[in-house]
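Exercise 3.2. Students should predict the tertiary structure of the chain below and write it as structure tokens, then compare their answer with the key that follows.

Predict this chain's 3D structure.
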Amino acid sequence: MSDDPLPPPSPAPRTAAVIPAAGRGVRLGPGAPKALRVLGGTPMLVHAVRAMAASRAVSLVVVVAPPDGAAEVKTLLDAHALPDRTDFLVVPGGETRQESVKLGLDALPPGYDIVLVHDAARPLVPVDTVDAVIEAVRDGAGAVVPALPLADTVKQVEPAAAPGDPEPVVATPDRSLLRAVQTPQGFDRATLVRAHGTVTDDVTDDASMVEQLGVTVVTVPGHEEAFKVTRPLDLVLAEAVLARRRLNDGF
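Answer key:
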């Protein structure tokens, strides 16, 4: 039996989160960019940053600001209490979400092997969901998305002949095989960087880019409170969720 000491355990891979927040949010109506809309007295972006920083595995959050608004976003974050254990970085974004995520990736220093990409418009994602995504990447998945089963029946339609005309239904997909995908989406950093350097199609999420590389994307359970605040009614629901949390937490 050898008396040689066992090698120390390998440190857990470090995790960074990228939050693209350069969009205008036209569906919420005129006014401030969607990420800067106030929720419970605090901008949604600050809630989203805190949601990422709530995970002890996340040691860096990169916020991708509107191209001409990086200084404003930096001032905004400096004005709100954020966890001391987490570093924060603000960089200017691009014209599209895809460009903005790539600029956030480009700003990451070495040493971060796992990258989360999170929508600023999902300010209330619970930390358990964030941790579940990170854990799945640590376990070897190249790409992970939190997802929920669909409650509604889904119809596939043909485009209407003219705006406002009825749309013909062509199929009813089996909803048991469908999922509504949320964020944060988690990735092996090298895989996500390769996707952004290879895929040029306009996509709605980063997991779609990784799929085009032939990499398997897996799901973990999402959460109902990780919904996307897109319409005015979503803001009402988000306010209600936040009020309930404050009541339960006693502040």
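Discussion points: Residues 210 and 219 are 14 Å apart (CA to CA). The first strand starts at residue 14 and ends at 20.
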